[in-house]
């Protein structure tokens, strides 16, 4: 992966939290999966290190286990990997809960049909209308996003992004399945353009949407 060192990411997370507040920045630890390097012990140790480092800078952590989409299978074909079995999922979740509770961080799952309430873990939603209501001071009731997976609880929203535009090369990412195309699009990025990659030609039809959005920000540290 072409990501910066974790120490730099942690410091960036902290600086952003200082600016916008810990309730507005959510730590994501996902997707959890196993390889020869990323085993049970690795995840426990890494989660503990990150939770301690981010304590006081976030109020919530969301985690999930690897969902293997077809395009992910293609990207990961050179790697021997597996999703933890149910016994390990339970053990990991129990340990994650103990660690996060000790650091004052609420733990939630993302798009997982698991009942982990015995450990104080609830099912969360990345696009959270309750959190948006709290942040904005306005009560919002937003229906669930019907275009997401059945297990997803997210409120209806509009994504700001495009496929094949990231050059980090995370092999488990479903949003990037053609690295050469991602590089091409990345190279056409113009920070003053109205769109993520390239330029408008003048023949486009642009429509404004008024769907519900979010005032919160999530960063992934894995």
The value of Rg in angstroms is: 19 Å
Q: Largest beta sheet: what is the strand line-up? A: 4-3-2-1-5
Look at the structure and give the mean pLDDT: 90
Helix count equals 6
Category by helix and strand content: alpha/beta
Distance between the termini: 12 Å
Report on the biggest sheet: 5 strands, parallel
* Helix share bin: 25-40%
Beta-strand content:
5-15%
Q: In one word, what is the shape?
A: globular
Q: What is the chain-wise order of helices and strands?
A: HEHEHHEEHHE
Tell how many strands the DSSP assignment holds: 5
Write a concise synopsis of the structure shown.
The chain has 222 residues and is an alpha/beta fold.
Main features:
222 residues, globular, alpha/beta, 6 helices
What does this protein look like?
The protein has one domain. It contains six helices and five strands. Strands 4-3-2-1-5 form a five-stranded parallel beta sheet. The longest helix is centred in the middle third of the chain and has 17 residues. The radius of gyration is 19 Å and the shape is globular. The termini are close together.
């Amino acid at each position: 992966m072409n990501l910066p060192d974790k120490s730099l990411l942690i410091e960036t997370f902290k600086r952003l939290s200082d600016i916008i507040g810990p309730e507005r920045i959510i730590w994501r630890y996902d997707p959890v999966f196993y390889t020869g390097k990323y085993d049970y012990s690795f995840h426990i140790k890494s989660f503990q290190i990150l939770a301690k480092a981010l304590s006081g800078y976030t109020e919530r952590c969301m985690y999930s286990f690897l969902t293997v989409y077809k395009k992910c299978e293609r990207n990961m074909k050179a790697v021997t990997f597996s999703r933890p079995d149910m016994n390990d999922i339970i053990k990991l979740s129990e340990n994650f809960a103990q660690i996060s509770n000790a650091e004052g961080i609420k733990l939630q799952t993302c798009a997982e049909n698991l009942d982990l309430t015995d450990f104080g873990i609830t099912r969360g939603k990345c696009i959270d209308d309750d959190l948006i209501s709290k942040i904005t001071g306005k009560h919002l009731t937003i229906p669930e996003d019907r275009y997401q997976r059945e297990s997803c609880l997210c409120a209806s929203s509009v994504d700001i992004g495009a496929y094949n535009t990231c050059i980090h090369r995370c092999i488990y990412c479903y949003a990037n399945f053609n690295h050469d195309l991602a590089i091409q699009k990345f190279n056409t990025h113009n920070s003053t353009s109205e769109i993520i990659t390239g330029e408008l030609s003048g023949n486009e039809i642009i429509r404004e949407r008024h769907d519900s959005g979010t005032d919160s920000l999530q960063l992934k540290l894995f």
